[in-house]
């Protein structure tokens, strides 16, 4: 029998995880990864907080909850097996006011329902033992939350794919995936058709996922609306003021987790990310505006519905965008000793966040499938934590379920 041939579009951590899983499960298959950049993992997979989320916030039973929990296990094992750094530095989610306590309790219940190990609710005294400079009424402590470099993990996966006989085609931007009879063809942006036909294709194209899906005949919605997240690095002399990860209790009026302290695997301590609409899907330094990207969301009715419902969030985030000081003070509510700390801007991350036409941000992961083509339509955080589990899920439950 001829070996099965798979095309994977997108060499971010999810595409690489899918390609690796295909080769692991059947060493005879032929796998080609198409990546538009000159190297793998140049977008979300190397511009994120580097947190291995333990599974605190996600709706029990949903894909995020299930794949995040499995993902933690797999990422930890992958780092161990490949001598990549994995630091279980722990995380506290801190309530500053009484009104936040019911929401903190709700997160605790979800964490228990999701099977997150060793989580506990702690009082202010215990919080001080864990994070001596942090203030708060109560906190949820997750000692198993960890940090890694997803960029490094992705690089290692790319190497492994090639070692296992897979092919990674760089500088290969795919315009559309064409399903014809029992074959799938890949048309490149250059207009050229890839010479080889495939039995199946999996599109994991992050910030471009809605466009590639629509051009390939999948539904136009949900659409990707890019939200950037700015980070600042704390001056070296102050970084030991925070030991691990300090997060606020998410405010249900605001769609993202809120500015937090994140220890990095290279030892730096960062504050961020905030969340604000980006003037380009790949505008990492604030100087690569894209009129096409801006026009895309301005012409999307969902965006205006979202914007009209999120005026307070927009104003709060805008303040942190225009003023570095406000940004730092927002975080320093949890660590007052850092209110005046010096910071250096770091490169932004840009979230590929899917939005429905009614303006709702899609919360769970969305993976759509026709007979031979699978599209990841929404894989925001904890998408990197979950990547190896997303790969496993797509390969074992969707593609090869027969
Ligand atoms: C600010 C921020 C912080 C985050 N923090 C965390 C965190 O702490 N923990 C966590 O688990 N998750 C986090 N995430 C989420 C995580 O980074 C993403 O879920 C994950 O990286 C998604 O991986 P991906 O492979 O789907 O997408 P990407 O990494 O964006 O990769 C998509 C790839 O597809 C390629 N591509 C696109 N279009 C085409 C095309 N037409 N042809 C060929 N190639 C194409 C791109 O060049 C890119 O390489 C964060 C994200 C952001 C933005």
Automatic annotation (TrEMBL):
Q: Pfam family example for this protein?
A: DAO
Cofactor or coenzyme needed: FAD
Residue ranges of the FAD dependent oxidoreductase domain? Answer: 6-395
Q: Does the keyword Nuclease apply?
A: no
Give the matching InterPro entries.
FAD-dep_OxRdtase, FAD/NAD-bd_sf
Record keywords:
FAD, Flavoprotein, Oxidoreductase
Origin, by domain of life?
Bacteria
Asked if the keyword Disulfide bond belongs to this entry, the reply reads no
User: What would be one Gene Ontology cellular-component term for the protein?
Assistant: cytoplasm
Q: Could you tell me one molecular function GO term of this UniProt entry?
A: (S)-2-hydroxyglutarate dehydrogenase activity
Q: What EC number is given for this enzyme?
A: 1.-.-.-
Q: Which family does it belong to?
A: Belongs to the L2HGDH family.
State the protein's name. FAD dependent dehydrogenase protein
The record lists the organism as: Herbaspirillum seropedicae (strain SmR1)
